[in-house]
């Protein structure tokens, strides 16, 4: 991928490019309490693990990405999570150009989850749209006392879902995640949550994936009861999308990370499976919620 005079944009492929990206990430995020090298345990995508800006032979900026493939309407699509990025101050005018190059595939879907307004603004300039402004922070009894008729919530049962959902939930079966199953009659809907967050200094979890937001909403009181009783989780963070409109929240509308999306995809089909929330450890700066 070519750039201007003395500048080129290249895929993060191979040990040398990975090391250059690591050096940039460690410089840009000196407060990180983990080794960024774990990001390269993720399988590479079409552009490796993202994009580097090379100026006169030296790396001056980079965008770290995680890629997966999902099927929508019978067609496989690239889903690229735009994760951590850092550009040295002298070259930050190139941020829009970098992101536009990275997200130029018209058939792919690109997601980003960040509380940083400047990063959101750059995304909007390059064709992203808001999926969620901040997060809904629900706590027990705030959004109802009882679940909808016939709804039950329990631990995830792989035998109750199809092979794709079974694989996704199995891949996320680690101490950072909580997998639930919502049942109503013959219906069985998975819901995956990410641990490690706080709401009002109390333990909380973020929704990463569900296949039916309407049923999850109806089951929310029962989910709260299960999460509190079985896992000690008080707060639940949910995206501010249409199927969850009207839910009450203990936090302001625009507080916390917002999710932005680029590509032809329905909002309810977007999820954070296999994103930076999966590959990076607890407490990474783009995933955290508090307050």
What are the salient characteristics of this protein?
7-stranded mixed beta sheet, 22% helix, 2 domains, 6 helices, alpha+beta, 6-stranded mixed beta sheet, Aminopeptidase
DSSP, total strands: 13
What is the beta-strand fraction?
Answer: 25-35%
Rg, rounded, reads 20 Å
Q: Going across the major beta sheet, what is the strand order? A: 1-2-3-4-5-13-6
What would CATH call the homologous superfamily of the largest domain?
Answer: Gcn5-related N-acetyltransferase (GNAT)
What pattern of helices and strands is seen along the backbone? EHEEEHEHEEEHEEEHEEH
Structural class: alpha+beta
Q: How would you briefly describe this protein structure?
A:
The protein is of the alpha+beta class. The protein has helices at residues 14-28, 95-102, 117-125, 163-171, 213-231, 276-279, and strands at 7-11, 50-55, 58-72, 75-87, 109-114, 129-132, 135-138, 151-155, 177-184, 187-199, 202-210, 235-239, 258-262. It folds into 2 domains: 7-132, Aminopeptidase, CATH 3.40.630.30; 135-253, Aminopeptidase (3-Layer(aba) Sandwich).
Characterization of the model:
With 291 residues, the protein is an alpha+beta fold. The protein folds into 2 domains: 7-132, Gcn5-related N-acetyltransferase (GNAT) (Aminopeptidase, 3-Layer(aba) Sandwich); 135-253, Aminopeptidase. It has 6 helices and 13 strands. The relative contact order is 0.16. The mean pLDDT is 91.
């Amino acid at each position: 991928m070519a750039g201007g005079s003395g500048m080129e944009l290249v895929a993060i492929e191979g040990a040398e490019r990975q090391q250059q990206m690591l050096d940039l990430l460690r410089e840009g995020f000196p407060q990180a309490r983990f080794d960024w090298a774990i990001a390269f345990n993720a399988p590479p995508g079409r552009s490796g693990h993202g994009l580097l800006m090379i100026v006169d032979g030296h790396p001056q900026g980079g965008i770290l990405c995680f890629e997966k493939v999902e099927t929508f309407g019978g067609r496989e699509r690239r889903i690229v999570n735009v994760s951590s990025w850092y550009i040295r101050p002298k070259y930050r005018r190139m941020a829009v150009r970098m992101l536009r190059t990275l997200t130029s595939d018209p058939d792919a879907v690109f997601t980003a989850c960040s509380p940083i307004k400047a990063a959101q603004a750059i995304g909007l300039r390059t064709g992203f749209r808001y999926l969620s402004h901040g997060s809904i922070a629900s706590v027990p009894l705030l959004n109802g006392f009882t679940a909808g008729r016939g709804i039950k919530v329990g631990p995830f049962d792989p035998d109750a879902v199809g092979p794709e959902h079974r694989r996704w939930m199995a891949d996320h079966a680690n101490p950072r995640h909580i997998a639930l199953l919502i049942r109503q009659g013959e219906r069985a809907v998975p819901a995956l949550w990410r641990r490690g967050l706080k709401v009002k200094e109390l333990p909380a979890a973020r929704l990463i994936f569900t296949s039916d937001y309407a049923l999850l909403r109806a089951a929310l009181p029962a989910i709260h009861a299960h999460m509190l009783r079985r896992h000690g989780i008080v707060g639940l963070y949910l995206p501010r999308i249409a199927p969850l409109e009207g839910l009450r929240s203990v936090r302001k509308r625009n507080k916390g990370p917002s999710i932005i999306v680029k590509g032809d995809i329905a909002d309810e089909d977007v999820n954070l499976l296999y994103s930076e929330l999966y590959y990076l450890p607890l407490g990474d700066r783009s995933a955290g919620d508090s307050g």
